[in-house]
Amino acid sequence: MNVSRESQLANILNRIRPFNEEVAERAIRHSDNLTKPPGSLGKLEAIARQLAGITGQLWPDVSRKAVIIMAGDHGVCEEGISAFPQAVTPQMVLNFLNGGAAVNVLARQAKADVICVDIGVAADLEHGSLVSRKVVRGTRNMAKEAAMTREETLEAIMIGVSVVEEQVKKGIRLFATGEMGIGNTTASAAITSVLAGIAPAQAVGRGTGINDATFAHKIEVVHRAITLNNPDANDPIDVLAKVGGAEIAGLVGVIIGAAANGCPVVIDGYISSTAALVATKLSERTIPYMIASHLSQEQGHMGLMTALGLSPMIQLEMRLGEGTGAVLCFHFIDASLKLMQEMATFDSAGISKG
User: Fold this and answer.
1) Does the first or last residue of the chain, that is N or C, have fewer Cβ atoms within 10 Å of its Cβ?
2) How many other C-beta atoms can be found within 10 angstroms of the C-beta atom of residue 122?
């Protein structure tokens, strides 16, 4: 155990401020005085309230946005659980860096930065825009041994925190989680099964689009990894180390880092939600800082949302990852704040209030 890393993590968690209920309620009172029936804008009003409570500001400026993509490989790919080879991970990282992936297109539309971090890719990568913070060259095969050591896991979490803090210094105030790593739905299913108490058969999804035989095999691999490693459900770091991944650990750090810096973080799909669950097990204070973006087609995602107590904004039958669903939801956040700031009140418009 690295006591220093444990201590650093504890200090970051202690920095997370409680949700500001007073300012949140001020936001709702303002919303109720706009020219509409109370609550008629649904989740857009809820987002405005949440942003106010997170930041302590009635209408915070979150115009500077970034999606942080954590990239890492998984030794469990040796078990044949993916429709794509592991070589796709570094290839896609370069695609992100060159601006050609789906998340890049959506980020440009949302006027958001894309920050790509090599935290565990099993290849040497060089690019001027790459944030190179490699902890492991791919995890070990969790079906045969623990995926990572506790020290590696803590280091990956703290890297996620540091990446966020670097971006906060540059003026970013709204974050989204993204990831890339062939095999990471298998690791996510294992974490979800342990921490949310969901059977592997319900936690495992189709991932990259595997056939029925591979799907059944993937369930068996997750079950075997959990049985072999016996992760402690009461110790989220132990679970993350034994059956997780470096990029998932990095995203845990992103979520914690955003919360510690008073910034909202939009959670993408299944893998990102798995990281969110780990973050909540480390500190429930992280929960109010999270905004759930979309409901993934991965079958375990609804169970994860239930465990987190979050309600996704949209359902578009997506399962790409990368942060695509989270970046799409930047538009809804912008819309929420515009409505609160620019709509007339009953008094200013001279309209009778019901």
Assistant:
1) C
2) 20
Going 222 to 303 to 89 to 71, the CA torsion angle's sign is negative
Q: What's at 6, amino acid-wise?
A: E
Identified catalytic residue from 45, 79, 247, 322: 322
Read off the pLDDT of residues 255-296 as tens digits, 9 standing for 90 and up.
Answer: 999 999 999 999 999 999 999 999 999 999 999 999 999 999
pTM of the entire structure? 0.97
Q: Tell me, what DSSP letter sits at residue 283? A: -
As a whole number of angstroms, the distance between CA 160 and CA 75 comes to: 21
Taking each helix axis from N to C end, the angle separating 21-32 and 43-55, rounded to the nearest 10 degrees, works out to 140
Burial of 129 (0-12, 13-18, 19+ CB in 10 A): exposed
The pLDDT score that the predictor gives to residue 97 is: 98
Q: Looking up tokens 């050591």, which residue turns up?
A: 149
Rounded Cα distance between 181 and 166, Å, is 23
* Whole-number pLDDT of residue 1: 47
Could you give the CA distance from residue 21 to residue 35 in angstroms, rounded to a whole number?
24
Write the DSSP symbol of residue 313.
Answer: S
Domains and their CATH numbers in the chain: 3-59+339-349 (1.10.1610.10), 65-334 (3.40.50.10210)
Angle between helices 246-260 and 184-196 (to 10 degrees): 60
DSSP string, 97-163: HTT-SHHHHHHHHHTEEEEEEEEE-SS----TT-EE--S-SS---TTTS-SS-HHHHHHHHHHHHHH
Sign of CA dihedral 16, 17, 23, 24: positive
